[in-house]
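Problem 12. The chain below contains 636 residues. Write out its predicted structure in token notation.
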Amino acid sequence: MNFLSRLKILPRWIIASLDSLILFHCALFGYLVRFNFELELIEQYDAFAGSFTFMIGGLLVMQNTRSYEGIVRHTGFRDGSNIFKTVLINFILFLFLNFFHGSFLNDKFLLPTSVLIVASLSAMFMLIFYRLLVKELFVYLKNGFAQKDLRHGVIFGAGEAGIIAQEAIKNDSKSQMNIVAFLDDDTKKDGKNIDGKRIYKGLDDLEKLVKQFNITELIIAVRDLSVHRKNEIIDECLRLNVSVSMVPPVDQWINGGLTAGAIREIKIEDLLSREQIILDNPRIEQDLKDKVVMVSGAAGSIGSELCRQISYYHPKLIVMLDIAESPLYDIEQEFREQHPNCAIKIVLGDVKNKKKMKEIFKEFKPQVVFHAAAYKHVPMMENYPEEAVHANVIGTKILADLSVLSQVEKFVFVSTDKAVNPTNVMGASKRAAEMYVQALNEYLEANHKKYHTRFITTRFGNVLGSNGSVIPLFKKQILNGGPISVTHPDITRYFMTIPEACQLVLEAGVMGEGGEIFVFDMGEPLKILDLAKKMIQLSGKKVDVDIKIQFTGLREGEKLYEELLNDFETVKITHHPKIKIAQVQTSSYHRIDGQIEFFHELIGKNNETDLVRHLKSLVPEYISNSSRFEVLDRMN
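Solution.
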């Protein structure tokens, strides 16, 4: 038995030998049936010679169909069809030989036709049956004799994906899971069986199954499952302390076949309270193909993904600008290896350096600019307001002004929902930058109607997995054994994935005619406390037992919830139901230009109070929260 449990693949010669023996005995069985098991008649017709001939003919056909090359423990429909082809060709071959013998040699048939029919039908049955028998034997040896404790699991989804997932787990010698049941929302499947496993309706019986079979895992194997239903399944599993994993989309299966190793754990991106936003606008390629595209902040989470997505639209050159040396080197190496046909130019530079930026525009003459460079960490910028204003406001003005002078076609500015009714320096600085590019676009439209750079703004919430976001922080804290630090039990945030954010930026570049602020319908905001709890549970830990949650209090400038529009803004719909345009009251270009220029006099004087006071005069809706700058609001 130990030898059999170690034997994973039967050699081809064993399969060919077994097939030959089956062909011989099926022919012999055909003779027995034909002559009612009368041995004297069988001997007269030389049954052994006929059976041997039938076996030799089958072996010759097998050399052509290669039906013996399949891995028996992975026998499936294709193997069955291959066996059917082998038997059918052999049947036709002997029909022809019988006709030849009878018509031209005036000899008796090699095999009586009735024997040939019985032999062929029984051979097809036995060849498939013994393969399935061996397949089940391997499963039995794996589950019955292997010295390991099998985990019990269920599959949610009794459709094609669920069946394939069950087969992949069943046939994987390394898998330590035993599927005991299926769950499905289709009431017509309730009570039926797949491979001996009963199908139960929805989640109704999950708790009962957990207790009955000690289930520890659930695999979601449903195509096009709604986010709402997915969250219901995950929540129920977390309540019952059952691990959740998912079958990946079909287009991600390697070589068209699913393996047990491809079934992945639930990612935090799967917990978004809305459907994933997918954009596919053919105009993007028209706008970017054969053009010089510059991306500032190209080494950051958004900037680097922007570069990756832009590369698919065949630009003439991507100019990757960033001040961060090491991450910029990393993205360069990535492109050299994974996008060797995409022309790139790595530029180490600071958007605050006007002289350097002027040289870059003069050398590369970009036609489209995506401005993603910014300081974004709220507490740090609250401590260094001068740096926030210098990079986020003046840096944006420098790039915007140079884009106009260089006749850039489009300038797409990446903003944030923290710019809406800002409560911190970072959000206020981004709002000031929004105001400038929008006022500049309005000024150009009024005074340079024939041709001018079109300025477009995109505004979205927190990006899952981006540098410095809460998700990587929580993951790190969980790996370290906790505690997880949450600032406030009621704090909420809007979330989107990095690809979604970058799709919005590219789509805005195409849709934008100039002056718009594009916002996403990002669904319902997520409660950070709930997010932390789910991340702990999805990692296989228990909240407040294995990993504790610690409330640290709101940080400087932080607010409990974010907004996508302020009190004075309305939205206008677009061709895409998930994308809207904020109707924002614009400012006078000359006024805001003068106010931003005044920052140059304040920077370097080491007087943060005057700097923030001026920022508040520029952005009237900026009211500080949990910050030392609240005193300035009380003075007004």
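Discussion. The two ends are 87 Å apart (CA to CA). Students who got a different answer should revisit the alignment rule from Section 12.3.
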